[in-house]
Amino acid sequence: MNILLLGYGKMGKAIEQIALERGHQIAARVDAHNRADLETIPADAVDVVIEFSAPESAVDNIKSCLQRGWPVVCGTTGWLSHRTEIEQLCQEKEGAFFYASNYSIGVNLFFRLNKTLARFMRNYPSYHVSMTEIHHTEKKDAPSGTAITLAEGVLEGLPNKQGWVTKEAGDDKGSRINSTDAVEIESLREGTVPGTHTVRYDSEVDRIEITHIAHSRQGFALGAVIAAEWLIGRQGVFGMDDLLGSIE
Ligand SMILES: NC(=O)C1=CN([C@@H]2O[C@H](COP(=O)(O)OP(=O)(O)OC[C@H]3O[C@@H](n4cnc5c(N)ncnc54)[C@H](O)[C@@H]3O)[C@@H](O)[C@H]2O)C=CC1
Ligand SMILES: O=C(O)C1=N[C@H](C(=O)O)C[C@H](O)C1
């Protein structure tokens, strides 16, 4: 397939390498400096777009591609307040849009483990749930998209919790509630860490915790290419549960 890489930074380059290894072609590489080129690329030169750019550019990028009739696989985080708008545009254009806060298969297994653990903990209110995510110092958004998905999974299993809050300031980005009623998320930025997520349940006497550690960006990149292969020929709005469900 002919892939348009929209955003050619750390992830764009990792995706290019895996796409070439899997026998695909790169139709174009569009980054901030040549963003205007997007409008000049012939529509039939592109089978699918893989968009990994920045929180402030993702929405415009996705809209431009859906307007051109291109299927879009998006991994950019930090723009989800516009999700409904994008999903409506996709339906209106009869297009195809795939989003995941994390394309790694391992993280998606971890998402399922997290939901199961949260259901187990429902009857043990003496445990306080909190999360920590660690990423490289270039990361623009906090908490990470993955941490937000994990928090949503915890909230599904623990109906008494009322939202998530960022730990440092208590100035939540999810909902304005007391942190004892909420899932606390701590965001740390260290060196070149690709992505580490921990969910923990602490009581007076012990702690239960689960951690996913990405050793590199390879897992994210491979998942994004597999999602692009899967998306071609489909119409609608999709996520990793659709993809994994279809290959289980
Ligand atoms: N869903 C997932 O599995 C993963 C998501 N991410 C997310 O992907 C995004 C990109 O991550 P990285 O590649 O590490 O960042 P990066 O900063 O290395 O690369 C982003 C690139 O986008 C470019 N860019 C900025 N504005 C643009 C525009 N208007 N059009 C096209 N390109 C533009 C930048 O110049 C830069 O080269 C982030 O939001 C990150 O959180 C990262 C890893 C995995
Ligand atoms: O910015 C990153 O690097 C990553 N971003 C994603 C997120 O916000 O969850 C996924 C991964 O953790 C790496």
TrEMBL record:
Keyword S-adenosyl-L-methionine among record annotations: no
Subunit structure: Homotetramer.
Domain Dihydrodipicolinate reductase C-terminal: 106-244
Keywords of this entry: Amino-acid biosynthesis, Cytoplasm, Diaminopimelate biosynthesis, Lysine biosynthesis, NAD, NADP, Oxidoreductase
PANTHER family: 4-HYDROXY-TETRAHYDRODIPICOLINATE REDUCTASE 1, CHLOROPLASTIC-RELATED, DIHYDRODIPICOLINATE REDUCTASE
Catalytic activity: (S)-2,3,4,5-tetrahydrodipicolinate + NAD(+) + H2O = (2S,4S)-4-hydroxy-2,3,4,5-tetrahydrodipicolinate + NADH + H(+); (S)-2,3,4,5-tetrahydrodipicolinate + NADP(+) + H2O = (2S,4S)-4-hydroxy-2,3,4,5-tetrahydrodipicolinate + NADPH + H(+)
GO molecular function, one term: 4-hydroxy-tetrahydrodipicolinate reductase
Keyword Metal-binding recorded: no
Enzyme Commission (EC) number: 1.17.1.8
Residues of the active site: H135, K139
Span of domain Dihydrodipicolinate reductase N-terminal: 1-103
One Pfam family recorded for the sequence: DapB_N
Binding site for (S)-2,3,4,5-tetrahydrodipicolinate: H136, G145, T146
Listed name of the protein: 4-hydroxy-tetrahydrodipicolinate reductase
Main location: cytoplasm
Classification via Gene3D superfamilies: Dihydrodipicolinate Reductase, domain 2, NAD(P)-binding Rossmann-like Domain
Gene source species: Spirosoma liriopis
Family: Belongs to the DapB family.
HAMAP family, alphabetized: DapB (MF_00102)
Subcellular localization: Cytoplasm
Residues engaged in binding NADP(+): R35
Function: Catalyzes the conversion of 4-hydroxy-tetrahydrodipicolinate (HTPA) to tetrahydrodipicolinate.
InterPro entries attached to this UniProt entry: DapB_C, DapB_N, DHDPR_bac, NAD(P)-bd_dom_sf
Record: residues binding NAD(+): G75, T76, T77, A100, S101, N102, Y103
Domain of life assignment: Bacteria
Pathway assignment: Amino-acid biosynthesis; L-lysine biosynthesis via DAP pathway; (S)-tetrahydrodipicolinate from L-aspartate: step 4/4
